Structure formats: C-alpha cells, structure tokens
C-alpha cells in the first residue's frame, strides 16, 4: 500500500524517491519528508522537574499547521528531509 502525504497529497513512490515515513505527533497526519517539521525538544516528552535527567531523543515530527499551533517558539531540526 502506498501512503499519501496529508499536506501535499503526493503518493509514496520508491522509484521517484518519495517517502511518506512519519506521522504528525498531534494530528496523526501522514507526512512526506518534505513536509515534516521536526521539533528538537517537544515538551510532551519532558521529565517532571524533580526527576533525574532522562537521556534519549525528545524530538517529534509535526505537520506545519500543528507546529504553528503548538510550538510557535520551538527550535526546529533541519536537514532531516531526504
């Protein structure tokens, strides 16, 4: 089954190098690599203030509209798109 990007409606196509390989952390929309917005540290994965630091990746993929709604001032990761 070929996935379709929820932002641009492009269909996944291995021959053309199009991959729909992530979903938005908030709305669950499938996203092609061109339309993935990666928030470096998503507060949803933050540890409680009195907890020991938790190692690991706290980044999350978002669509553009959810990023603008929920993470206006967030640091974004670049260079993830393939």
Q: How much helical structure, as a percent, in the residues?
A: under 10%
**Strand arrangement in the largest pleated sheet:** 4-3-5
Biggest sheet descriptor: 3 strands, antiparallel
**Rg of Cα set:** 14 Å
Low-confidence stretches: none
What's the end-to-end separation, in Å?
21 Å
Shape: elongated
Mean pLDDT: 84
Q: Supply the helix-strand structural class.
A: mainly beta
Query: Strand-and-helix sequence, N→C?
Result: EEEEHE
* Strand runs, count: 5
Count of separate DSSP helical elements: 1
Quote the beta fraction: 15-25%
Compact summary:
This protein is mainly beta. It has one helix and five strands. 22% of the residues are buried.
Notable features of this structure?
3-stranded antiparallel sheet, mainly beta, single chain, two-stranded antiparallel ribbon, 1 helix, 9% helix, 82 residues
